[in-house]
């Protein structure tokens, strides 16, 4: 039986195929991965026990280039979820205009329960098990939930040992000293900010002085807020599991980041109103909302509480389809996740290009390249959205993004003779 997550992803593709007038064969190809690998990773634990961990790598589609997608270490990962995530990466990479297909990897483990030595052995074991199907021209993983630049460093080292030479381009989001790029730390949030600025320009007359509420204050949310404040927006709400801080006069994001780092709770920010509910950031009076925390945050149960005119999805799937349609009836623009939060994979592409050339740009040059790609991606989707919403009813921006993504995949597969 197909999981609900995978079913939703497949339904999304089916809708896009119908909207774009593509042949059914496109859905048939995209509904199945090109390759699925299930591996076992033996690890000798600190107490002498031998543990066997199950891992996956799903290589979904390579029409546009090497497979690209993160590796997730989490106790509840499933193969079907990995397939769904790999499929979404195919769509995201296509929409981003970068030369990648979609892939995803996972290991069923709670990394918090492993010692540093055990975690390193697991990471290196994952690479050894999949060495023959990874490569800087074949499949290029990156971090995801439960993994980080340190794990990427272990993995690129293990791969390089097996190859007999340094191969920096086989993994991305590495530490800067090991061929990474400092922009990668904030690239997803920065990309969200660029897209937010462009959406505000089109629908609100500009970002300067606009009130923005950010739900969340993890990596994506804090940098989304930070860069929007740099661009002239007024951040009026932030939140984490401790609650929501609301200040209509504006929040000092750098001070909030300092408080979060030192106390682990945004509720300790010294100013503004403190609200115990982390979801309260969704409901404050703001022009723009960034749901940057978790999936399924804006639903039919709370959609009527949303006051923002633009929603920019920093998290994956924060708005349910029914709620998105309801918002559209009220004229609210929802900038979809696989457009808004693509800054991470676009930055991974830029790091990969640097690695292949052994030539590195400065942080400022890299950020400018990332900004240009994200801006152009938004403008392409905006134009498509404006074009098709005059022809068809009940169209949302996500539909336009989906059609653009499928158009590129369809053309590539048609030229290659797959269709």
Q: Would you give an account of this structure?
A:
With 419 residues, the chain is α/β, with parallel strands linked by helices. Among the domains are: 32-167, Leucine Dehydrogenase, chain A, domain 1 (Rossmann fold, 3-Layer(aba) Sandwich); 187-340, 3-Layer(aba) Sandwich (Rossmann fold). The protein has 13 helices and 12 strands. The strands form 2 sheets. A 7-stranded mixed sheet has the order 9-8-7-6-10-11-12. Helix 1 (4-20) crosses helix 13 (397-416) and helix 6 (187-203) crosses helix 11.
Summarize the structure.
The chain has 13 helices and 12 strands.
Keywords:
419 residues, Rossmann fold, 7-stranded mixed beta sheet, globular
β-sheet strand percentage: 15-25%
* Structure classification: alpha/beta
CATH level 1 class label of the domain at 187-340: Alpha Beta
Which CATH architecture of the domain at 187-340 is right?
3-Layer(aba) Sandwich
H/E element sequence: HHEEEHEHEHHEHEEHEEEHEHHHH
Name of the CATH homologous superfamily of the domain at 187-340: NAD(P)-binding Rossmann-like Domain
Q: What is the averaged pLDDT score?
A: 94
Rg computed from alpha carbons, rounded to a whole number of angstroms: 21 Å
DSSP summary: helix tally: 13
Strand order, largest beta sheet: 9-8-7-6-10-11-12
Helix and strand layout, with pairings?
Blueprint: H1 4-20, H2 24-30, E1 35-44, E2 50-61, E3 67-74, H3 79-96, E4 101-108, H4 116-130, E5 139-143, H5 149-163, H6 187-203, E6 211-215, H7 219-230, E7 234-240, E8 243-246, H8 253-263, E9 273-275, E10 288-291, E11 310-312, H9 321-329, E12 333-335, H10 337-340, H11 343-357, H12 363-388, H13 397-416
Parallel strand pairs: 3-4, 3-5, 6-7, 6-10, 10-11, 11-12
Antiparallel strand pairs: 1-2, 2-4, 7-8, 8-9
């Amino acid at each position: 039986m197909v999981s609900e997550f995978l079913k939703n992803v497949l339904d999304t593709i089916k809708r896009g195929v119908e909207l774009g007038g593509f042949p059914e064969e496109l859905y048939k190809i995209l509904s199945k991965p090109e390759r699925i690998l299930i591996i076992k990773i033996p690890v000798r634990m600190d107490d002498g026990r031998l543990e066997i961990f199950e891992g996956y790598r799903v290589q979904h589609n390579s029409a546009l280039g090497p497979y690209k997608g993160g590796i997730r270490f989490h106790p509840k990962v499933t193969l079907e979820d990995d397939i769904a995530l790999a499929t979404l990466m195919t769509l995201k990479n296509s929409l981003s205009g970068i030369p990648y297909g979609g892939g995803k990897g996972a290991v069923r483990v709670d990394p918090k329960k492993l010692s540093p030595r055990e975690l390193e052995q697991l990471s290196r074991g994952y690479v050894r098990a999949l060495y023959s199907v990874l490569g800087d021209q074949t499949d290029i993983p990156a971090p995801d939930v439960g993994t980080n630049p340190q794990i990427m460093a272990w993995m690129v080292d293990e791969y390089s040992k097996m190859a007999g030479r340094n191969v920096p381009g086989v993994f991305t989001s590495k530490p800067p000293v090991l061929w990474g790029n400092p922009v990668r730390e904030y690239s997803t949030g920065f990309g969200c900010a660029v897209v937010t600025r462009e959406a505000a320009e089109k629908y609100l007359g500009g970002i300067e002085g606009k009130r923005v509420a950010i739900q969340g204050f993890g990596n994506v949310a804090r940098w989304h807020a930070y860069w929007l404040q740099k661009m002239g927006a007024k951040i009026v709400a932030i939140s984490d599991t401790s609650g929501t801080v609301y200040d209509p006069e504006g929040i000092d994001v750098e001070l909030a980041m300092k408080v979060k780092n030192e106390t682990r709770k945004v509720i300790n920010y010294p100013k503004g109103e403190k609200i115990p509910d982390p979801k309260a950031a969704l409901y404050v009076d703001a022009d723009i909302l960034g749901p940057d925390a978790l999936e399924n945050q804006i639903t039919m149960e709370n959609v009527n509480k949303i006051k923002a005119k633009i929603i920019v999805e920093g998290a994956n799937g924060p708005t349910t389809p029914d709620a998105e349609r309801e918002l559209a009836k009220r004229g609210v623009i929802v900038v979809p996740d696989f457009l808004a939060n693509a800054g991470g994979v676009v930055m991974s592409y830029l790091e990969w290009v640097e690695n292949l050339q052994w030539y590195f740009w400065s942080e400022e040059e890299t950020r400018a390249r990332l900004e240009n790609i994200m801006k152009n991606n938004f403008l392409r989707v905006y134009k498509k959205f404006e074009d098709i919403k005059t022809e068809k009813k009940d169209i949302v921006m996500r539909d336009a993004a989906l059609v653009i993504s499928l158009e590129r995949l369809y053309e590539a597969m048609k030229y290659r003779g797959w269709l």
